Amino acid sequence: MIKSNPVNQVQVRSALESFNAGKKHLGAEKRAKPLANLYNSCISNRQWPSYCKKGKWTPVLKKEDPQDGGSYRPITVLPVVNEVFEQLLSDQNSKK
Length: 96
Prior knowledge:
Layout: H1 9-18, H2 28-45, E1 56-61, E2 72-77, H3 80-94
Antiparallel strand pairs: 1-2
């Protein structure tokens, strides 16, 4: 089992600021504290909320003919909350 350490607001803010979500403004200053609380709760309980596990399926054209249904592949766009949490955990584990 991999042990994860709690994260702090500075780490969360930094991760939000460095996250490239199509150049969207993520409001890192306002969101750092509640996200740090969520992440630390998840680390303590070793459980991620099920509502955060759902992604939005989007068809992406992979071939030339947009009229052909087989020319698309499905991708899942996960919420930024998931991506930032994964980045924080990955950073912890890569330093060990």
